[in-house]
């Protein structure tokens, strides 16, 4: 399977994203009650933010996942940890499907990390998933993330975790 990543178009992609972020499997995305206009507005705000960017991921040319990249020194984690030079924050969401493919989500997170580490300025990827999201914790660890500690965000208790370029390569065999 071939993965590609392109910038998200908040207007053109809002309808597609609405179905993803409001799906019952996307409960940790915290947009269950969002309407299409809310989704377009939220991603329009991200598009206008110099510290936060959204991307649409394609699998063999078909929309398959959402990825967000942010600067944790300015968004999401301000005051919750001491950012280091080269830190980049990340969120990802795989599109819901009625026909899951074994290993697909691991392929997605591997593609996301490869994409992030292709930027030579990125030294470490930072994530803060909900502490209850045990499936993503296991997935994160499988690609090289190391949990550091729980943190309290306004919307959730989160597990602050980090993945260096070296840990990613050691866990996956992928060099970016």
What can you tell me about this protein's structure?
The radius of gyration is 15 Å and the shape is globular. A hairpin with a 2-residue loop joins strand 2 (52-59) and strand 3. It has helices at 14-21, 36-47, 104-117, 134-142, 165-172, and strands at residues 3-7, 52-59, 62-70, 87-94, 124-127, 146-153, 156-164. The protein has a seven-stranded mixed beta sheet with strand order 1-2-3-4-5-7-6, sandwiched between helices. Helix 1 crosses helix 2 (36-47). The chain is α+β, with helices and mostly antiparallel strands. The protein is built from five helices and seven strands. The chain has one domain (3-172): Gcn5-related N-acetyltransferase (GNAT) (Aminopeptidase). It is 29% helix and 29% strand.
Measured distance between first and last alpha carbons: 18 Å
% residues in beta strands: 25-35%
**CA-based shape:** globular
Q: Radius of gyration in whole Å, from Cα?
A: 15 Å
The number of distinct structural domains comes to 1
Total helical segments: 5
Instruction: Report the sheet with the most strands, covering strand number, pairing sense and barrel closure.
Output: 7 strands, mixed
* Largest beta sheet: strand ordering: 1-2-3-4-5-7-6
CATH H-level superfamily = Gcn5-related N-acetyltransferase (GNAT)
Which CATH class is shown? Alpha Beta
Q: Which series of helices and strands comes N to C?
A: EHHEEEHEHEEH
- Regarding quaternary structure, what we see is single chain
Tally of strands: 7
CATH architecture: 3-Layer(aba) Sandwich
The parts where pLDDT drops under 50 for at least 5 residues are none
């Amino acid at each position: 399977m071939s993965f590609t990543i392109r910038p998200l178009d908040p207007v053109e992609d809002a309808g597609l994203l609405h179905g993803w972020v409001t799906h019952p499997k996307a409960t940790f995305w915290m947009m269950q009650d969002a309407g299409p206009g809310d989704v377009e507005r939220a991603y329009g705000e991200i598009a206008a933010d110099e510290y936060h960017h959204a991307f649409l991921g394609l699998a063999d040319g078909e929309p398959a996942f959402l990825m967000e990249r942010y600067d944790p020194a300015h968004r999401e984690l301000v005051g919750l940890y001491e950012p280091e030079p080269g830190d980049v924050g990340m969120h990802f969401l795989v599109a819901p499907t009625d026909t899951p493919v074994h290993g697909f989500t691991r392929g997605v997170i591997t593609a996301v990390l490869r994409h992030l580490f292709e930027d030579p300025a990125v030294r470490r990827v930072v994530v803060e998933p909900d502490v209850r999201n045990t499936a993503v914790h296991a997935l994160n660890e499988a690609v090289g993330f190391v949990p550091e500690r729980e943190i309290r965000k306004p919307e959730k208790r989160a597990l602050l975790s980090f993945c260096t370029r070296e840990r990613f390569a050691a866990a996956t065999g992928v060099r970016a």
